[in-house]
Amino acid sequence: MIDLGNAIPFAQGGNRKCFIHPQDSSKCIKVIDQESYSNRLKNLPWHKKIRGKMSFNDNHEEANAISKIIKNVDQSSWKHVANILDLLKPVWSEGLVTELIKNEGEIAETLEDYLFKFGLTEEIKESIHVFEKWLLDNLILTKNIIPHNLVIKNDGNELVIKIIDGLGSKAFIPLPEYFNFFAKRYVKRRIELMWSRINWDLSGRKGDWK
């Protein structure tokens, strides 16, 4: 059991907090925010409640999704996800341990931060195209892909996009999980929405990005 004590998260989303592992700074612990999780379950529409609580647990969804990638995707293509290392019980909540993506000892910046600083450079545009090709070639199911859920790893002369949140299908009827025809349509739509969000961010976030 890991005691996070008064540790301060280095990042936080709607449902999870991310901590540097107190015993190994090369690892990240993603912890479910229990209050947010409880509220999320309480406010689900009736038709989604039949899926069960674990369908809305981001740690279990991510662990399951990466397990499928490791099982079904060639090892050379694992570079776009963080390695899952463990599922454990910190003192006050459940945690998922993954590698902490770093560049020269510093936590890797998100695509969102990069775009706000440098804009859509040719280098990062090429990296995004490589990432979307990986999604489509391997039929990787995700929720909506948001730039702050992608980080950039400097890998030699290449910028590699890694997805650190949002793996797993958001389809209520899970046809994309069982049929390639529906999976391809689903992934193409996620890619369209990813570019819509990128362009929305770069435009000053005017209007609705969807």
Description:
- By secondary structure, the chain is α+β, with helices and mostly antiparallel strands.
- The protein folds into 2 domains: 1-100, Phosphorylase Kinase, domain 1 (2-Layer Sandwich), CATH 3.30.200; 108-210, Transferase(Phosphotransferase), domain 1, CATH 1.10.510.
- 36% of the residues lie in helices and 19% in strands.
- It has 6 helices and 9 strands, in the order βββαααββββααββα.
- It has helices spanning 34-42, 46-49, 58-72, 111-118, 122-138, 180-202; strands at residues 11-12, 16-20, 27-32, 84-88, 95-99, 102-103, 106-107, 150-155, 158-163.
- The strands form 3 sheets. It has a 5-stranded antiparallel sheet with strand order 1-2-3-5-4. Strands 6-7 form a two-stranded antiparallel ribbon.
- A hairpin with a 2-residue loop joins β8 (150-155) and β9.
- It is globular.
Please give the structural blueprint.
Layout: E1 11-12, E2 16-20, E3 27-32, H1 34-42, H2 46-49, H3 58-72, E4 84-88, E5 95-99, E6 102-103, E7 106-107, H4 111-118, H5 122-138, E8 150-155, E9 158-163, H6 180-202
Antiparallel strand pairs: 1-2, 2-3, 3-5, 4-5, 6-7, 8-9
